[in-house]
Every structure is written in C-alpha cells, then in structure tokens.
Amino acid sequence: MENKAKVMTWVQKYTMILILVMVIIFFNIQTNGKILLPQNITNLISQNAYVFVLAVGMLLCILTGGNIDLSVGSVVCFVGAVGALMITSDMNILLVIVFMLGIGLLIGIWQGYWVAFVRVPPFIVTLAGMLVFRGLSNVVLEGKAVSIASYSTFVQMFGGGANCYIPDIFGFEGINITAIIIGIIITACYIAYEAKVMSKQRATGQNVFMQKVILKVVGATAIIMFFAIQFSQYKGVPTALIWVALIVAIYGYITSKTTIGRHFYAVGGNEKATRLSGINTSKVYFIAYANMGLLSALAGMLTIARMTSAQPTYGTNYEMDAISACFIGGASAYGGVGTVPGVIIGALLMGIINLGMSISGVDSNYQKVVKGLVLLAAVIFDIVSKRKKA
Amino acid sequence: MTEFILEMKNITKSFSGVKALDNVNLQVKKGHIHALVGENGAGKSTLMNVLSGVYSYGSYTGDILYDGKICKFSKIPDSESKGIVIIHQELALIQELTIGENMFLGNERGKKFAIDWNLTYAEADKYLKTVGLLDSSRTRICDIGVGKQQLVEIAKALAKNAKLLILDEPTSSLNEQDSQALLDLLLEFKAQGMTCIIITHKLNEVSYVADEITIIRDGKSVETLTKGVDECTEDRIISAMVGRELSDRFPKRTGHTISDEIAMEVANWTVHHPIYTERKVVDNVSFHVKKGEVVGFSGLMGAGRTELAMSIFGKSYGTAISGSLKINGKEKELGNIRQAIDMGLAYVTEDRKGNGLILTNPIRTNTTLANLAGISKNTIIAANKEYEIATNYAKKMHTKCTSIEQLVGNLSGGNQQKVLLSKWMFSNPNVLILDEPTRGIDVGAKYEIYTIINELIQSGKSVIMISSELPEVLGMSDRIYVMNEGKIVGEFAQQEATQEGIMSAILKSDKGGSEDGK
Predict the structure, then answer these.
(1) How many Cβ atoms sit within 10 Å of the Cβ of residue B449?
(2) Residue B511 above 50 pLDDT?
C-alpha cells in the first residue's frame, strides 16, 4: 500500500519525462529507428532552438500569474526584419547583434510598462503588440523577403546554413571528436557541481538521499553523452545549441537560485502576500515582459539565421509553441508553478512529436490536431492529478 | 415520530489510509440546537461533508439516518432536497450579484428559460424579513457588510426549505453585536421548530444557544453533553476537546519588565478610504507602544484597526494619510512596505491565506520571503542557510509538518499561522503588529502563539495585538486601546480593563457618532 503510493507520487512527479520516453520509443518503432539517427537528433535541436529560447522567457510571464505574451511571434519577425536589413547594408555583425537585442528589449520595456505600471491586462497589451509589430515587419520589409544567405558569419553563428556546427579541431574521418570532448567536459562540470551541492547539504545537516543523487547524475550523464555521441556522428555540435544551452543555464539559475527568481514564484502564488512582504510586484511584471522582448530578439536572430532570410510571415504562431511548451512542461495556468527544466522537456516533447510525425509522413494538418490534443491532455492531467491530491 | 431528526452511526472516513473520522456517532434531536465542538482538524467539517453528500455514499462506512430513514447521498443537491442545508465558514456569495440573485442561485424562480425576477425579489424580501434584514433584495452583496452577508446566507438556506440547518463557524468573521444578533435569530428559529447544528470555537456561544454539545477529538466523538443534565462549563468542554486540563488559557509572563522607552509613537493619524476618498477610515488617532509591551487594540469589526495598522505599515492601505510617526523617538516617513520592514516594523495580517502566505509554496520559501536579503548575497540565495533558518523556525514554533518542503496550503490553520509568524520574526522587527493572531485556530495552537508573544516581548520587542476576542485582549495586553468608527474611544491599563468597560466604551461612542451614518 505504502509502496504503491510512493510509486504513484514518483510517477506524478516525473510524468512528462516518462511520456517523453514513451513517445520516443513509439516513434522509434514507427519510423524504424529513423528518428534517432544523428541527423534527425541534430535537426531536433536546430529546428526547435527558437522554441527553447522563447519558452524560457514565456515561463517567467506565466509564473507571474498565468499571464502570456501574444506578441512574441510578431516581435521575432520584426526584430529579424530590422536585423536582416542592417546585415545586408554591411553593418558590423557585432553592432547588428547589439542593435537587435536593443530593439527587442525596448519593445519589451514598452509592453512591460503598460502591464506593470498601468496594469493593462497583459492579454490586451500583447495582442496589440502582436498586431503592431506584424504590421511594422511588413512595412520595414516592404512586403518582400530579404536574403542574408551570403553573410555566412552571422548565419553560422546563429545556427543556419550548411555549416553551422562547432568546427572539429581533430579531423578524424566520420567522427567529430570535439563534440565528444565537449560532452565529457560538461558531464564533468555537472558531476563536480552535484558533488559540491551534496557536500554542502551534508555539512549543514540535511538529509541526502544517495540513491536519488546517483540516479540523477547517471541519468543526466547518459543524456548529455547520448547527444554528444549523436552529434559526433553527424557534423558536430550545432551552434544553435550553444545559445539554447546558455539561455537555459542562465535562466535556470535565475529562477532557482536568486532572489529575483523567488519573487516570480511568490507573485504568481499570491500577489498580495508578496507585496505585503515588501517586494515590488510591479517590478516583477515589468522584468518578465521586458525580458520576453529581449529573448524574442535572440529568437529573431536564430530564426533569420536558420532561414537565411527575413520575411513578413516569419514567427507566425511562435508564441503558441512557447506557451504550449510551458504548459506541457508543468507550468501552472494560474501562475507560481513551473521550472526551466520542465519547460525544456515540454519543448522537447513537442519537437519530437513534430519530427516523428513528419518522418512518418503524417499530413501537417493532422500534426496540428495531435499537438493540440497533447497540450489539452497535459493540462487536464495536471489539473486532475492536483485535484486528487487535495 | 422519532425523537432524533438525525442520527449518524459509526461513521468512519479515511483519506489515503489516514482516518479522518473514526467511528463517530452523532444524534441530533428535532427542534434542538446541537453544538459540535473540537480543535481544528478534529474532523468536524469532514463529518458535515459526509452528511451533506460532499463525500458520497460508499466513500465512508456507517449509516446516516434522517427522519428514521437511511440516507444515501451522492451529491449536495440530494441532501438539500431533504432539507439539510450547510452554511460554510467562508461565505459563498457572489459579490457583484444582488441579494436576490444570490439567494436563488441554482434555485431560480420562474421558468427555465425565463426567470421571473419579480417573484424572485418578492420571495427574497420575504426571507430577508424572517432573518431580520431590512435591506432591499436588489442590493448588491458587495454593498453590505459581512454581518449582513451572513444573514443573507441564512436566508438563502431558508429559501431551500431547510429543516436542518448546519452552520460552520457562523460568527468567525462577525463582531460581538452581529454575533449576538445571529445567535438570537437561531434561538428564534428553534422556537419555530427548526433544528440547527452549529460548529464553533467560541464556547460562550455554545453555552448560550446549545441544547446538546458533542465534542469531537482526533476524529472520534468523545462525548455528548446535555444542558441541564451534565455540567457544561467552558473549562469542562475545553478539557474534553484537548483531552487535558487547561489550567490557564494564557501563559504566565515571568520576570518581564516594560521599559520606559517608547518604541513607536503615532500622532494625529488620519487615513482616508482608497476609493471613497472623502470618507475617513482612521480619524485623528494617537497612540504609542513601549519596548517590551503588548498593546491590545479592541473594537468591533470595521472599527478601522486593520486599516490603521496597514496605513502605518508602509502606507499599504488608504489615501491622503496624514499624521506623524516616530520610531525610537525619531520622526519617520514610511513611503512603502520595504522601508517599513527596514525600519523594524512587521505586520502579521488577519487574512493569512489571502494576504499572508503563498499556499502553493513550501514552508521554507514562505519563511524567508520578507527577508530574502537575510539569506542571500548579491541576490544569490544561499540554499543551505535558508534550509537551516526555516528548519530552526519550524522547530522553535513547533510547526507540525512532514518537512519544511511541505506546501503551506496543506497545513492546518494553526500551523499556517505559525509559519506566518516565523516569516515576520525572521524579518527581525522591533514592533510586531499582530492582526487577529489566533483567528480560526484551536485552543492548543492559541496557547502556543501566546507563548511566542511572551517570548517576543521578553527579548525587548514590542507587540501591537489587534483582536476581536475580548478575553484574549484582556488576557494578553499590558495596555488596551479601544477603537470605534476610526477613532480611539478608550484606553485601559491591564488592571482596570474589563469586558464590560471595553464594551461600554464602544457603545457610548456609538451613540455620539451614529448620525454620520455608515
């Protein structure tokens, strides 16, 4: 009886990981193993880089109380459009990057101001932003596509074109040693980090569950090395992954280890109590939306690099991808609950379903149906399992 | 005709292996008022939920006999159709709808696709009259006070043809006057043949209205006392509730002296209502608190005590605040809550779920929320330090929890209050304002909170305690201010304060100020 309850809570806690594994197994059978080919694994990361970046930003908005940002797709398109025009006018690449991030941040500040200090509902503010920046993208691009294919530095840096991988310094035929070495270094850093955490916890007299830690370390090592080996057998580590990893690391740290991160969870959990604890809740909203603008700019760079062009239609429905990833990854629609690792799993799950269905040749319209149902199922599961606990 | 309108026999109900109710028996006589008392978490609410069909037939064992017949309720409408109606502690009224709309919500008058509003309001007015409420039933709920809202709930129950009325803590949010009126109303209903079950923590109410008293402890029915047959003194009931003799409800203070130094002084403090800005909520109030002193603030609900406290605490309530505030003798202007906390103030809210705690977060993060700077360096949180602090507080306060990672929402009221107190003690204040610190928590937890208050003042801190319970104010305060309608209408030293003295200070001032209207 007690064991059964334990298993149930464990299953509940790691549901999305279990589902992810099951989906992978399903598609692995369905596609005769094609989905786990090195090339497909590489594509999974490169194609979905923007989802990871946007979903992390969206998580902060959702944490503040289930608030979403609808303008994300339009901002991605607009920043990309302005960036593409600057690139094609032969501006210094570094300057272009700074400029693009600056525009994104300004848009975020604009929207954040109305949301946080005037308390216009975020849905309205970002719906307006969605229209405004989609329109402006068209105006800036004059309705045409702008190609940046010939500017290989920028394109390669942000994960586009044929050669967007970390170059191999060893030059063995058929295997990219650099990728494996990167994998080993990351694994080593991770193990060292866990060891440090554990020793500190021991020193302060907390209970440390050795089995759990080992399981966690072995799991993480397996995943990191799996990706490293896959990449090594194709063309190496895609550059887009570096940006994704950077964002995930930074925001994972902010949300779990800093006071600002704590403010986000507190505001979403109970805004009044947070305010009465001496925390400036308006500032929390402001940061969430300003930051969303910044990350939209980064996603804009990843998008135009991957497409090697800017078009007025880019970024359509990107906000929906980000929102779905958050909710599938366990963020609460009421705010206050959700983690960066969870969101990454959510984004991966959506990515795998996409990829698997594409490889199996499922009609793209049906793909949408399936994705929609998965989103609904995830949220239903979340709500029902919580209700049972109560 | 059976003597008992309701018999609950050997009710046992478990939640995932834990027995919330263990062989509970309850017998309610027709036309009597039956009180159900017990500590928080003793199982009173669970028992009533079994009765009303919230927990459907089959999810518990035992029998419910109503009018001599076995009942198998699977949902609330089943029990309501038999005339069993519960009024829950938290009022279930929709603020933006009118009294009439609320009263017949889900029970609409007229046809399914054509509500007869004239009939609705006419009937509503009729029921309002029975409960002694003179407002029009077209008044919106948000425009009437809590006392009247409670009466609307009762009228709503009557509209459902209630034969057995169950009231869960009906007076917990009412002031003494409204409580008294409500209890008298129940006695009136009784005279008309209605049966009532009343769940309450207030033992004076029990002895006032109840014919029988069933005491529940740890999910078991301990005993049933009958008025006139058994001894029904408060001490007798309390000892049955807690299973031990509570020799004194307030812990003794030993070797503690009040310093002459004044910790905080407020002069000519006036606060206006945030929306109706012409209305003065706090009117020219002056008071002070010394180091090591407990100052009680007594008064009726809505006297402006909470508003006074919150306006001092970094202007978290009201507009056009005027007056002077001195902390340790120095004039201060506290523009926001952060500044107030930094100046050594803490305000422990009366509404712990709404304004105090983050229910979806664990004990650990709730404990440190008001003082994140105390566990972080350059905004980076030292996780181990936080763990240590939260654990220490949980131990010190005797918070009952599985670990400090337990979500606050899963704790009982008393333990939530302890977490809330921990949070504000960790913010290291010199003056703690406790707003109704023991509301809705059981006798044992109350005692523990009083002990904590004593420890605080022994370490030289000052406590301002706002409380609507007169015995508590009298038992804990060194000095008592009485507030009414935004003004201070009396000040008593501990020795000279009596319940009668405080009540008469309020009532006398009421006559003077009544022409202002409300």
Answers:
(1) 22
(2) no
| Residues 6+ away with beta carbon under 8 Å from B181 | B132, B147
Q: What is the distance between the alpha carbons of residues B45 and B499, in angstroms, rounded to a whole number? A: 31
Query: Which of B237, B85, B262 has the alpha carbon at shortest distance from B164?
Result: B85
Phi-psi region of B282 (alpha: psi -120 to 50; beta: other; left: phi over 0): beta
DSSP structural state of residue B518: -
Tell me the C-alpha distance between B142 and B93, whole Å.
Answer: 9
Residue type, B230: D
Contact B355 A266 (CB under 8 A): no
Contact assessment for residue A360 and residue A30, using Cβ atoms and an 8 Å cutoff = yes
Cα A104 from Cα A345, distance rounded (Å): 26
Label residue B284 by pLDDT band (50, 70, 90).
Answer: very high
Interface with A, mutate which of B342, B361, B426 (most A CBs under 10 A): B361
Q: How far apart are CA A303 and CA A196, in angstroms?
A: 38
β-bridge partners, B482: B298, B490
Global pTM exceeds 0.80: no
Q: What is the mean pLDDT of each run of 10 residues along chain A (390 residues)?
A: 69 80 91 88 91 97 94 97 94 94 97 96 96 96 92 88 79 82 92 88 79 88 90 88 93 93 93 92 96 97 94 93 92 90 93 91 89 87 68
- In this prediction, residue B18 carries a pLDDT of 66
Note the pLDDT tens digit of each residue in B168-215: 888 877 777 888 888 999 999 999 889 999 988 777 888 889 999 998
| Rounded Cα–Cα distance for residues B336 and B462 (Å) | 21
Cα–Cα distance for residue pair A127/B238, rounded to 1 Å:
59
Q: Which residues of A touch B354 (CB under 8 A)?
A: 270, 272-273
Locate B461 and state its tokens: 């801190």
The answer to whether the CB atoms of B357 and A273 lie below 8 A apart is yes
What contacts A89, CB < 8 A, 6 or more positions away?
none
Sheet arrangement for strand B280-290:
B280-290, B262-272, B319-327, B330-332
Q: How far apart are CA A296 and CA A316, in angstroms?
A: 13
How long, in residues, is chain B? 518
Contact status, residue B312 vs residue B325, Cβ threshold 8 Å: yes
Number of Cβ atoms within 10 Å of the Cβ of B108: 15
Best of A13, A259, A277 to disrupt the B interface (most B CBs within 10 Å) is A277
Give dist(CA B459, CA B449) in Å, integer.
16
Residue B456: partners with Cβ closer than 8 Å, 6 or more residues away: B425, B432, B463
| Closest to B292 measured CA to CA, from B140, B464, B168, B155 | B464
Cβ neighbors of B447 (< 8 A, separation 6 or more) are B246, B249, B250, B251
Q: Does any CB of chain A come closer than 8 Å to the CB of residue B380?
A: yes
User: Would you call B319 helix, strand, or coil by DSSP?
Assistant: strand
pLDDT value at B514 more than 60: no
